[in-house]
Amino acid sequence: PDVIIEAQFDDNDAEHGQDHLQDMLTGDIKKLSLDTGEKGKAAGVTGVHRTKQDDGPKVNDPRLLPDEFLQRTAKVVYILEKKHSRAATGFIKLLADRNSELFKRCAMFSPVDHRVPRVYVPLADCPPDFVSKPEAYSQTLFICRIVDWKEDSNFASGQLCKSLGQAGEIEPESEGILTEYGVDFSDFSPEVLECLPQNLPWVISPGELAKRRDLR
Fold it and tell me: Which residues form the CSD2 domain (predicted)?
């Protein structure tokens, strides 16, 4: 009853727009229609017997179908609360279409976490020699924060916050994870440190040990 057509496209396709994708889908639909017609003619000529399931009336109006045969659809109308930090760790690269106006203004940020969309970032946020030597930054981790995502765009818009360092090293990878999840890993303030015991070395008093559960 329903035909679902799935199409895959890479970075180049998405950067060039969806016109060719729509043309491809339209061609597939026409092909399906022609195939259905030809199969019907062939069945009439060869005298193929119809099954009991085919004997029922054909319903072309979806409103006449029972609810269990319908696919529920919806759209997001408002974001109540942003649960994600909008920050992501990833890599930057040049756009594929060097002749486009976008190539002169933006670079592509690809997050390590594939649940986060790819992001257009201004070239002004990138290192000064990135355009001339993009391969030098192919293994450099960056932190990007999403600031906008327009309805008619395949990619979000964002800003590069900082360079973390080489991918695969523990320190930049850890900092990237903490930033993505919004964990504050900055140094403690003097007010907080003053709450700690000042006379060192400090030991737990016998009275505290008597009323606490020892998990050491």
Answer: 107-182
